[in-house]
Design brief:
138 residues; mainly beta; 8 strands; 37% strand; globular
């Protein structure tokens, strides 16, 4: 039997509140409700991240908000071991809809991540703002 003290701690870290702009407000309002939004272009059909008014593929301004289940796989990651709050990991998740999201990984031990691993979004509270999307293994 493994002693609880022998298990590595799960990673977490405090994330500062994001800057909310007129353009990003619908995203942060949805995040406060536990919903993850991405943008999709009505002209070329491509989903994109980060949400913005102009499509990065065809430069159309006909983009719409779309709710995403926030599921994907780890494309790459890096664990930062030298931190006053303990180890934390950041990396890219390729969403099932296609876009890659730069994110923090939580609720997993530092050695518990792998490329291609399935992950799902969750929302982490911030001190003075809306919750931010982070990802954890499924």
């Amino acid at each position: 039997m493994t002693d609880v003290q022998d298990r590595p701690a799960l990673m977490t870290r405090q994330i500062p509140a994001p800057a909310v702009t007129i353009e990003s407000k619908p995203f942060w309002d949805a995040a406060a409700e536990g919903r993850f939004l991405i943008k999709r272009c009505n002209d070329c059909g491509q989903a994109h991240w980060y949400p913005r008014a102009l499509c990065p593929f065809c430069f159309s301004d006909k983009t719409v908000w779309e709710e995403s289940p926030g599921e994907g796989v780890i494309y790459t990651y890096s664990v930062m071991h030298r931190s006053p709050s303990g180890p934390y990991a950041i990396g890219y998740v390729t969403l099932n809809e296609g876009p890659a999201v730069l994110t923090n990984f939580v609720d997993v031990a530092p050695d518990g991540l792998s490329i291609g691993q399935k992950v799902k979004v969750k929302f982490q509270p911030t001190e003075n703002g809306p919750p931010v999307p982070v990802f954890s293994p499924v």
